[in-house]
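Hello forum,

I keep getting stuck at the same step: I have a sequence, I want structure tokens, and every attempt I make locally crashes halfway through. Rather than fight my setup again tonight, could one of you with a working pipeline run this one for me? It's a single chain of 518 residues.
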Amino acid sequence: MKLLPAVAGLAPSILVAACSGTSSLPPQMQPPSGSRLDNVNHIIVVMMENHSFDNYFGALAYAPGSPYHTDAIDCAMDDNSCVDGLRCDSDSNGGLGCSNSNPEDDASTVSVFHSTSRCVLPDLAHSWSESHLEVNFNDPNATLLNALNDGFVRVNDASDQPDNAAETPTEDSTMGYYTQEDLPFYYDLAQEFAIDDRYFSSVMGSTLPNRLYLMAATSFGHVDTGDSVPPEGFRPITGTILDLLDSAGISWTDYFQDAARAAVFRQPSGSATDAHFQPVQAFLSSAAGSMGAARLPQVSFVDPGAFGPNENDEHPPTDIQRGQLFVSQIVNAVRGGPYWQDSVVFITYDESGGFYDHVAPPLAPQGLARTPDGIFPGQCADLSNPPASQQPGAGAGCAVSESQARSLCAGLAQNPNGPYPENCASFDQLGVRVPFLVVSPFAKHSYVSHTVGDHTSILAFIEERFLTSTGEAGTRPHLTQRDQNANALLDMFDFETAPSLNTPVIQAQPPATDCTPQ
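Reply #2:
Ran it on my machine without issues. Output:
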């Protein structure tokens, strides 16, 4: 399910297809002096939709010419050429035969397979309750203690993709994966720059709560995208990264195609008259240093199209190569422009979208607390109508989340606004693993991090760079216990030698045959 539009009034920025080949590069550049994080002056965040790590990069180690390998058991922490992907061997036809699997309800197994369609239809199951069932089918409230990742096939058979009478081995789309042939641009970035194979969504659920974590380090009780955004926008008690940036005088802009995701916190100011919200074309012009364009802000959030004929966010059933083209245009604008030498581009996905992944989601980094802010699933609290709205369950726009939380937790259903049951799933576990790439002069070349991260790691990086005074260790400003304890993933960078400063970036092509349903 998609996040509903938050901003209207700007015409969609229709992005023109790019041709293949390398971008036009600036002259050979020299690395900046110094080894500190303050060599970074521009942070660009691109969050796409609904794919797991295994779905996109499970086959990365097997790509022709890949600098990476995999391990039969697990990657050692100090082996940064090892990718924890699918367990595969080359078959007699030159393809891959992989052993990862999930059980069917008749006790047979479905193995992962190379998907032949870039447009998965119908959509896969990825609500709060469905995601927990996918991670532990028999005991979804015990995912933290026992994450088996054994329910992907059975949950989708029951809800979104019921079995046909004569089911084929490639019918369960949740078990499909893509290869370098399907996603050449993404595979090139992954092989040239840095990735993390222990980066997880922030919530074991759908789009809205995960995007709230990206901006607020909490979803303040929300677990479902079906919740309505209140007319004044969401008002989390602990604030948002936008508030921290504003208070420190750090410039930021949300560039969007048809719906500005950050505007869920800034309505009604999040409108066509608010300078913080600009069309994607403005980002392309600024990043490229076009004559007359505004300077690139210190922090940029760049949102793909989520609706209509120009959708390119990679949410099924949209052709994933549309999104690859969109990201290619964003990255190439930065790579070929004047801001490249002091920029970091983060590329990730809000949540797994119901696609299989084999890695167990770990404990959330929040000091062993069950929630980052004292607010439990389905018991939304905020500043929409204080002090009443600060009480459990009194927050705005929480009806669907309340229903979802109660459907998973019988004890909560009996006493919805009472003490949250100890035996029910909470916000103390990260969600299913998703792709995460760093494209930057400072990114280590062909590097795989095994450091646990989630969307609040991006907040931690922003806070470390722009909100922390040099020399004041342990004083990083933060919103909740989640971003306070999140790893900023600095191991993926070399700020002194800028090893990827002169690494070229290829350009993606549009799909030769677009499979997006019309």
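The chain has a mean pLDDT of 91. If your local run keeps crashing, start a new thread with the error log.
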